[in-house]
Specification:
Layout: H1 10-18, E1 47-50, E2 65-68, H2 70-75, H3 83-91, H4 100-113, H5 117-127, H6 133-147, H7 162-179
The chain binds zinc ion.
Zinc ion binds next to helix 2.
Length: about 190
């Protein structure tokens, strides 16, 4: 079954929403909302996404369309209450372009390891058996660059997904902990915050 093409244009959707939703709640500036995803703020080809799905009676009108990249499009809510879409988009607001997916990976890391990338790196810095703290900082930077050779993109996904990025962070931290003889927190240990 072929669905009719969406007639609402990108410009119509922006004109409608920029007067109704304050951009300080969003990852995107309205002046760039024709080229940056309204949820993650990444510069991508944008897709028109029904707020209320077509199959639940959602109309082809600017009030029912937001613009998302394909990655956010796949994650978006498909429900009959139109407020849910904006609740979701606003909940993911980040203040700077280009930070969204690394922030999601850090959240994923916390979910899995019950600690943050930052506190693990601090732990290594504090406990490392070395006379030169600056050397650790350089090491962290260089290791991060090297790390991407150990990951691959999943078939059909033109990006490293959140679990992959979180896994790369963990691999980096394990490597450093090993090198500097630091015992890491494991996800089965319990630690006070
Ligand atoms: Zn996006």
């Amino acid at each position: 079954m072929r669905r009719e093409a969406i007639k609402t244009t990108i410009k119509q959707a922006i004109d409608y929403w920029e007067t109704r939703v304050d951009e300080c709640c969003l990852s995107v500036d309205w002046s760039e909302a024709d080229s940056h995803c309204w949820r993650c703020g990444c510069e991508r080809n944008l897709q028109r996404f029904h707020i209320i799905p077509h199959s639940l009676g959602g109309e082809d009108s600017p009030s029912n369309i937001v613009l998302l990249c394909s990655r956010c499009h796949a994650d978006g809510p498909n429900v009959s209450d139109p407020e849910i879409m904006w609740d979701w988009i606003k909940a993911y607001k980040v203040p700077f372009y280009g930070t969204f997916w690394s922030i999601q990976a850090e959240e994923e890391y916390k979910r899995i390891y019950k600690t943050s990338v930052t506190s693990d790196l601090k732990l290594i810095e504090n406990l490392a058996q070395t006379s030169s703290p600056n050397a650790i900082n350089d090491k962290i930077k260089n290791s991060l660059k090297d790390l991407f050779q150990y990951a691959s993109v999943h078939f059909g996904q033109p990006y490293l997904n959140t679990a992959t990025l979180a896994g790369l962070y963990r691999m980096l931290i394990k490597k450093l902990a090993n090198e500097y003889n630091v015992k890491l927190r494991g996800n089965n240990d319990t630690y006070p915050d």
